[in-house]
Structures are given as structure tokens and as C-alpha cells.
Amino acid sequence: MQPRNVSMSGAVDLSAVKAAAEAKQKAEQARAQRAAAQSDGGQQAAQVSLVIDVDEAGFERDVIQRSAEVPVVIDFWADWCQPCKQLSPILERLAAEYGGRFVLAKIDVDANQMLFQQFGVQGIPAVFAVIAGQALPLFQGAAPEPQVRQVLDQLIAAAEQRFGIVGAPVDPDQAQAVAEAQQAVPAVPDNPALAAAHAALDSGDLGGAITAYENVLSDEPANEEAKLGLAQAQLLSRVRDVDAERVRKDAAERPDDIAAQLAVADLDLLGGHVEDAFGRLVGAVQRSVGDDRDTARVRLLELFEVVGAEDPRVVAARGALARVLF
To answer: Is 82 in the active site?
Structure first.
């Protein structure tokens, strides 16, 4: 079964501009639904299972749909995998400890080869997350618990800040009350100027999209959705007509050519090689001086906007940039 609306390219999904806003609205509705259901039932909601076994048939329901309300962490494992037997108990224990702030979905790779291939898993154990239908690789291998805990904390923060998604225990017996509450939640009105910018981006009118997002930001400088859209439109505009093979050859032959390094970083990011793009630009900042150094630094900050400020890879790259600069 093909997972719908899932980015398999390092979570740099160029449809995420609208997805973030829609996910925030759905998350707000879900919270209102839970509150209404609890009120109607007169009891505290009971906790559903926080660790579930997922197969290809149930992936849409158990992962994609559920990720609109709570971050879903996916543990790719196999019975013969010894490192998996070290990592899985840690993830399961933390799922219980975190009490509904994320759900752990366990996928046996031997029984679900299609999902294994679609996520591009190179080896197991491998841990991904899905937030609002967007896939994000977290880590591979049997990481120690402190590292796992740190990654989960960053994931939960990103889910709340970027998408407005906050997991919470839900009583499955109150499903009918939840459905009724959903109808009572008013829709959040659209921003016409932002909708026009999205439409331009969707149609491939990159110049129009850039202008439209800039217009939104001139009136609302803090509009995060417009910032993300502008960064994505600019990235697509830069790479639209480039010869990827020539660009990579130039960058390899001229490591001190800032323009060449920036062009390859754009290609890497668009292809989902986020750490490679960030590492290349941090290295360019470290090697250069003056205007070249500032140009590389500014481009790196622009790419941070594309991925999202709370993404763990952005957090790590910001730290690396700070060490280089200071």
C-alpha cells in the first residue's frame, strides 16, 4: 500500500507550506474534540495503546491518519536483528513514560518489505517519524537512551511549534462524542494573499510565488508559513534550470568557489540530503572570508527556513555554524 502524502526525501516536502497550516487547524480541532468528549463523558479520557504493530494494510490508518493528532515514531525492526532487541525496549519504555506525546509504531521489515523499501531504509534498526503525513528520518542503529530521549524531545517540540500537534491520551469509547464535537469546531479562515502565493507555487509560477510571499511578509513579517513558502520558492527557482552534473563537477574541482558550493547545497537539500547540504555550507563558511563568508552564511540560514527551525538537523547545523563563526 502506497503511503499517501508522505515525503520520502528527508522531510523536505515542497507541499509542506499548506500542510503545516492545515495540520495546525486539524490539531486544534482534535484538541477541541477531545475536550468536548471528556466533558460529555464526565470522565478523564483513558489512554489508548501507545505501542502498536503496523503492517502495510493498516499503515494509512495507523500512521498517516494518526499523525495528524500525534507524532508517530516508526521503529523498523526484525526478529533476527540483535541491535533491534537493544533499541526496541528503550523506545517502548519511553513511549509509556512520555504518556501520549508520541505513539510508537513497530514495523517488522521481513513482513513489510514494501514499507521498508518506500522509506529507503538502509539498515536496521532504523527510526523515522511521521508528523502531519510528513516523514522524517530520525536515526539508525541502537542509540543509547539519552540520545534517543534528546531526539524525541526535539521531535515533540517541532511537532507542536511547526504543526500545532500535541499528542494526548484518548478514550476510544468516546469516538461518537468526538465525531459530534468535530462538527462544532469552526474552520479557521484562509488568508487570501497567502492562498494566492500557495496557488502560484503549486502551479509552478515561481516568480509569482516569490512576489506573493514577499507581499505577505511586507504586511506580516512574522508569518512563518510565508517565510517557509518564500524559502521553498526561491530554492526551486535557483535549481530549476541547472545542469546538476556540471554543477557537481565544478564544485569538486573548485572547492573554494562559493557559488559552486551553494549550487550543490541547493541540489543536495532538494534531493533530501539535508545533512550533506548543511555540512557543505558550514565548511564553506569556515574556509572563506569577507563577502564570500557572509554569502555562504546567509544561504545556510535560508536553507534552515526550508527545513524548519525546530528540525533536529537544523539545530545541529546551527550549533556547527556558531562554532565556526565564534
So the answer is: no
Specify the 3-state DSSP secondary structure of 20: helix
Catalytic, out of 11, 45, 63, 84: 84
CATH architecture of the domain 192-325 equals Alpha Horseshoe (1.25)
Reported CATH class of domain 16-184:
alpha beta
Which pLDDT tens digits describe the chain residue by residue (326 residues)?
333 333 333 444 444 444 544 554 555 555 455 455 444 444 433 345 789 999 998 999 899 989 988 999 999 998 888 889 889 999 999 999 998 899 999 999 989 988 888 888 888 999 999 998 888 899 988 888 888 999 999 999 888 887 788 776 544 344 334 334 434 444 444 688 888 898 888 788 999 999 999 999 999 998 888 888 898 889 889 988 889 899 999 999 999 999 999 999 999 887 778 899 999 999 999 999 999 999 999 999 999 888 877 778 888 999 999 998 87
Among 81, 136, 200, 260, the one annotated catalytic: 81
Q: Residue length, the chain? A: 326
Give exposure, 184-216, as e/b (b: 16+ Cβ within 10 Å).
ebeeeeebebbebbbebbeeeebebbbebbeeb
Say whether 81 is catalytic. Answer: yes
Helical (H) or strand (E) element with 45: none
d(CA 59, CA 203): 30
How many CB atoms are located within 10 Å of the residue 283 CB? 16
* Contact (CB, 8 A) for 122 and 64: no
Q: Domain coordinates of the chain in residue numbers? A: 16-184, 192-325
Task: Look at residues 158, 169, 170 and name the one whose alpha carbon lies nearest to residue 134.
Answer: 158
The pTM of the whole model exceeds 0.70: no
φ/ψ (deg, to 5) at 183: -70, -20
